[in-house]
Design brief:
Elements (H helix, E strand, L loop, with lengths): L2 E9 L5 H14 L3 E7 L2 E9 L3 H11 L6 E5 L7 E5 L17 E3 L1 H9 L5 E5 L3 H6 E3 L2 E2 L9 H11 L6 E5 L4 H12 L4 E5 L2 H9 L4 E3 L1 E2 L6 E2 L22 E3 L8 E3 L2 H6 L6 H4 L30
Parallel strand pairs: 2-5, 6-11, 7-9, 7-10, 10-11
Antiparallel strand pairs: 1-3, 1-4, 2-3, 8-12, 13-14, 15-16
């Protein structure tokens, strides 16, 4: 394993984000860094991969300007991203609402989080603030998954929850992959009068490195070429199923129909039978990508323009 996949976020004012974007891109290109780095006036959200020998030069460069940044590191045998993207993004995490970080939740260490799960009562709610497809392949036991189309609906969800539960009695525990969503979303609960709001420090990635699979079911969805990974070194039970036949599987494919492109779970046999498509209708779609059977698919890469004009035979 010659590469390091790293994730971190920085929540502090950045005076000239456009200039910072250029600086980051220039430096990361010298290290052959790949990944997605989003920057705006309020901070940075980054997931990237580097050759292992470049991790120290990058860390030294990062911590010089942003001391105390916690960088989560995982090993991998190749770059986990196809290219380098460094750009301005209005929201580091989709919410469509401003936030006050000083009103965020209490950070719990991995050990404190595990202990609180063990001691939870009927007034304790454990919230998974990730997408459905993330939750489906792995989550903490006893988790409640909010139901809505996009996370821009989260403020409304919190408002409704404040009507259904007593904010003064309810203990809200929330977690996400790396921690940044909880930093922002926890502010909404405090704004709605919830007095006890807790967030898993460092997210599931850090928890797995420190606590292993304790109280965790399944595996972890990640937004890079790996798609689904264990949260710890030891194997864990697969809890999700193939969309087509119901076999226990946690392998995701992007639908080969270019006009669908949905992410769906499938075993290799069904993926081959369905030609990489999620439905029969998509098999007949006019713009269908060629499908190459593989047990470890990567996220869909956009085809060159000239390859999009006709469907494969």
């Amino acid at each position: 394993m010659d590469y390091e996949v790293i994730a971190f976020y920085i929540l502090k004012p950045i005076e000239e984000p456009r200039r910072e974007i250029k600086r980051w891109k220039k430096f990361l290109e010298t290290l052959d860094g790949k990944g997605r780095i989003y920057i705006n006036k309020k901070g940075i959200n980054a997931q990237m991969s580097l050759f292992k020998e470049n991790l120290t030069p990058f860390s030294d460069w990062l911590l010089k300007d942003y001391p105390n940044t916690e960088v989560k590191v995982q090993r991998y045998q190749e770059h986990a991203f196809a290219k380098l993207t460094v750009k301005y993004r209005e929201q580091l995490a989709a919410m469509d609402k401003d936030y006050d970080l000083s009103q965020g939740g209490t950070h719990l260490s991995s050990a404190e989080w595990a202990k609180m799960i063990e001691e939870r009562d009927e007034d304790t709610v454990i919230l998974d603030v990730r997408n459905d497809y993330e939750w489906e392949v792995g989550h903490f036991e006893g988790t409640e998954k909010p139901t809505f189309e996009t996370f821009r609906e989260f403020p409304k969800y919190v408002e409704e929850m404040s009507k259904e539960r007593d904010p003064k009695k309810t203990k809200v525990m929330m977690y996400c992959t790396g921690g940044i969503r909880c930093e922002l979303y926890s502010c909404l609960f405090k704004e709605q009068g919830f007095e006890e709001v807790y967030q898993l420090d460092g997210g599931v990635i850090k928890y797995g490195q420190e606590q292993g699979n304790k109280h965790w079911k399944g595996n972890l969805f990640v937004f890079d070429d790996r798609l689904v990974v264990p949260i710890a070194d030891e194997e864990n039970e697969v809890i999700s199923s193939c969309k087509h036949c119901g076999t226990k599987i946690d392998t995701y494919y992007n639908c080969a129909n270019m006009d669908c492109n949905d992410l769906f779970l499938s075993c290799l046999d069904c993926a081959e039978k369905m030609k990489g498509c999620c439905t029969d209708a998509c098999i007949e779609a006019p713009r269908r990508r060629p499908f190459t059977p593989t047990a470890h698919p990567k996220p869909f890469r956009k085809l060159p323009h000239e390859e999009k004009i006709c469907a494969p035979s």
